[in-house]
Amino acid sequence: MRRYAWMLATAIALAAPAALAQQPDYTVGEKVRPEVAKPPPPGVRDLEWDDMVPTSWNPRQLLDDAGFDDMEDNDPRATALLEALRKEWDKAPVVTALAGQKVRLPGFVVALEGDEDSIREFLLVPYFGACIHVPPPPSNQVVLVKAANPFTEELAMYPVWVTGVMKAGGRATDLGAAGYSIDDAQVEEYPWR
What we know:
Blueprint: H1 2-21, E1 45-46, H2 61-66, H3 76-90, E2 102-114, E3 118-125, E4 143-152, E5 160-168, E6 172-173, E7 176-177, E8 180-189
Parallel strand pairs: 1-2, 4-8
Antiparallel strand pairs: 2-3, 2-5, 3-4, 5-8, 6-7
């Protein structure tokens, strides 16, 4: 029996790179590409990332008011401004009307908790590389997700759908602040073909 388990594991490992090669490559900063997807289940709202930002909030206001465009590289004013911007973005306002709604949202996984085989808790972000390769987006563009069922790291390499009940309010993590959270979430592959 062990011999067959080893053969199966080897076959899966050899087949995985071919399957991954068929998936699209995303570049840092790229958002989830619109795809033809089945409609959400009854009672579930497909959510857009822009729906999570209050219409009255202007994330560029601090930059516009400070004249950031007129500053040179390594300008101490620019460094101070970016620190102030990060603090503002970490406490970005949320749309409280989303609380309690069952939603489905596509995005990219930034793993927080799991083991070498699976992920249980993660940040869902709107673009590839957020929190890892580039600074995190405003907190109202980050969702703290606890998966109902752990999923493989292979699934986390590409965009996913997350479905669950939205909560307004998340928490700060080492990788970024989350303005929303979804517990007991269903995580599935985002369609790419």
